[in-house]
Amino acid sequence: MVQALLQDKALKPRQKSARIIAAVLDGELTFAQIVAYAESARLPEQATLMEALVQVSQQRPALADVHWLHFAMRGLCNTKAPRLQWEAATLISELAKRFPAQAVDAIPMLEQNLQTGGTVVRWSVATALCAMPRDAEMTAKLEALWQCEQENGVKNVYAVALGKPKSKRAK
Question: How far apart are CA 51 and CA 25, in angstroms?
């Protein structure tokens, strides 16, 4: 079913994602089936699957379990696919509050993506880092990232999490 949806040339990418979301929500498609297909899928297909899981986790959080978090962590490791990285970081940010003990394992991978990713990847990673359980060490880490980030959109993600004023765009 996953392969048929993703390889349907009549569907646009957003339509494919919407159909996958609907199939998961309706119980026609399982997380296990998604993972099994993703193992050999092309990178754009993996990103579409990750995007669908983000939407499902937002619409019906109870469907997501810790295995979804581990799947997202594997997606972070692929530096050849920025869309997969940002969707994986977005899924991690969605799941961090539900699985805080396991989510902290993603922090080193998220930090690595700050170095290799473009603006959208850094924005998604910043969102995920700000969703992590907060202690003094994590707060200091976010403060340091806020101070060194040059892109205002990304910097503002840290600012909101730290209770600082947002940066304004240069005119």
Answer: 14
Q: Which two tokens stand for residue 105?
A: 């394992």
∠ CA 126-154-119, nearest 5°, is: 95
pLDDT score of 169: 62
Q: CA–CA distance from 135 to each of 65, 67, 103 (Å)?
A: 24, 25, 14
Instruction: Give percent helix, percent strand, percent coil of the chain, each to the nearest 5.
Output: 75, 0, 25
pLDDT of residue 79: 78
DSSP calls for 18-85: HHHHHHHHTTSS-HHHHHHHHTTS-HHHHHHHHHHHHHHHHH-GGG--HHHHHHHHHHHT-TT-HHHH
In the DSSP assignment, the letter for residue 96 is T
Place of tokens 């991978």: 109
DSSP letter at 127? H
Element (H, E) at 90: helix 82-95
| Residue 74 pLDDT exceeds 90 | yes
Q: Specify the DSSP class assigned to residue 133.
A: -
Report the distance separating Cα 166 and Cα 105, nearest Å: 29
Cα–Cα separations (whole angstroms), residue 167 to 117, 119, 147: 21, 16, 11
